[in-house]
Amino acid sequence: MTSGEITEEYFNHARKINDVYYDQIKISDQKAAYIFTFMLAFLISSAEGRNVFNWTRYAKGQWTEILLSGALAVASVLSILFAILVVLPRHIDKSTSLFWGSWPQHRTIFEQAAQRGDIRYLLDEYLDNADVLSLIARQKYRFVSLAFRGLMFTVLAYVLLLLTTQNQP
Length: 169
What we know:
- By secondary structure, this protein is mainly α.
- It has helices spanning 8-45, 47-51, 55-60, 63-87, 103-116, 119-166.
- It has a domain at 8-92 and 139-166.
- It is 80% helix and 0% strand.
- The mean pLDDT is 92.
């Protein structure tokens, strides 16, 4: 092998990187869907969950109930919002021929590279696409992490609220 020669191993590795990043993006979307579904089911099925959005709880409740209810309301809303932010479409300035949305801009370049037999073009497309997928995955996982923390805080606030209100008449 000469220096600068692109071998099949590099192509396979670049493809694998793209596949792994794409799978990680799908996994983050699935995690967000689970968190969103759990939070929505919790708010619909739990009387305590619904009551934290009732103004009378704050107007007539004790300070611990008010504090925990507010924490539960904020945590549950933020968790749902962060889960939604995971699945929102991303706008990335960089694109490749592997993204359907930018195919019209890349088709001619692809055809020219194919006519020249430009192997380097193909590897560069895989590498550039890996950069884009990596950025998308990092953005999504940041919001998944925040949604999960919101979920944990929701559960904690809910349990504490139940313990606090359980002993009240």
